[in-house]
Amino acid sequence: MSVPIIIGSAPGGAEVQIDIEELLASRLLVQGNSGSGKSHLLRRLLEESAGLVQQVVIDPERDFVTLAEPFSHVVIDGSAYAGPEIAKLAARVREHRASVVLALDGLEVEAQMRCAAQFLGAMFDAPRDQWYPALVVVDEAQVFAPAAAGEVSDETRRLSLAAMTNLMCRGRKRGLAGVIATQRLAKLAKNVAAEASNFLMGRTFLDIDMARAADLLGMERRQAEQIRDLERGHFLGLGPAISRRPVAVKIGSVKTGSSAASHALTPLPATSAGDVQALLHADWVREDTKRTAPDPIPVDADALLDQITSHGTDVVVDQPPAGAPHPSPEDEIEPALSEIFAEMAAEDGSSFQPAAALYQDFSVRCRMRRLSSKHIDLPAFRRRFAMALAGIFNPNDERRKEVLRVAAGISDDLLGPFLLLATAAQDGAPCPDDESLARVYGTTSPGRIRRLIDHLEKMGLIVVRTDFGGRKSIGIPDLGVSTASAS
């Protein structure tokens, strides 16, 4: 059975079609440098096939959320949910055949990869009776299936690459048809790209990418130069769902637009240098005292599951509800923040997690309490979290005022262990054992703790004393106090 949609037109004016039924069985790879029209092509494909097949869009740049209103796609804000919630949402998407856009623009690259991997993994693991046909469109696929290791951890890269490989290699039997778009073939993992049978190649300039594109299109190397001359929105297509021979296609118009800002040239304002100087410094407010607008309040996971279950309503679920309360007054913010830091510090393994992941968790907790987290940036969060691990949840705690004064110049990585020692000394409590210091320092190595103590002593921050019975105490010279002896 053939189910064609019109994707654009050939140079002579003839329509160029994509057979959706064939595409579900053979997958699609789109390549083109930035500005070549990849997103426009994907948008055309999604709009024309919206009434024919379920669609799942992995959107790292929030380009496709505008599909929600006219086509009833549900927008899932990936930054608002934890891993188990994302997996549960994906399972419901599969079960109820909801068309969704997973917006990942609020996450760092590593978090984007983990979120997409969990979402795709849950869809892939759906029960056999839910293997309905679905187009799974992944924009900027080189992010989720990189050809080489980058700045992300090896574990994250393996998870993301495995999810993308499953989508492209084994997804067909489960009804999942991968449509992946990349700026550069050289940056995309070969085992992911190799599984596509349909290709739409846009403008690209690097020789290595032109050569690979020409190979995939079955063109001779000397013909690859024409790929460099393609205009924006023009592609060369090949594959069982498009054409048995390479065909040039100009992508047709679309009904929706990107949420990104336009980069068209606009006239500069006719303003004198003196006026510009005044404008730049008008109503000057220091960043550390400026009140910021509240973060968007995430939709509760259960509410989003209900949205997916009743798929078809024209609702964008990543917007805060109307009439949502403003952040708490200033006198209520600090107690609430102290409570959040206390909760995070009490969780097992929290000190072993990367600071960026912890900060993301902190931001979500703030939004759940309808607080703004913008006045605490990542560096400030590191210090507050180190304080919380040592039992200091409020930076204005009068009891710890002197301790915090002494610790003001200490680096973030040493702050937690030093504060743990200093507060114990201030209270006259026994010296914290190596296990307690290791938890605050984020290590399981006794050797690292010994080196840490030596380093703090060489810096003059502590003085270690061991009595004849082998009991150790630690003094804080700047405070004039010492811990009680402990074995």
UniProtKB/TrEMBL annotation:
Where are the membrane-spanning stretches?
A: none
The record's Pfam families line, in alphabetical order, gives: DUF87 (PF01935)
The alphabetized UniProt keywords are:
ATP-binding, Nucleotide-binding
Q: InterPro entries annotated for this entry?
A: ATPase_Atu1862_pred, HerA-like, HerA_central, P-loop_NTPase
Molecular function in Gene Ontology? ATP binding
Top-level taxon of the source organism: Bacteria
Please report the stretch or stretches of sequence annotated as the Helicase HerA central domain: 13-68
Q: Which PANTHER family does the record cross-reference, listed alphabetically?
A: HELICASE MJ1565-RELATED
Tell me what this protein is called.
ATP-binding protein
Give the source species: Sphingomonas limnosediminicola
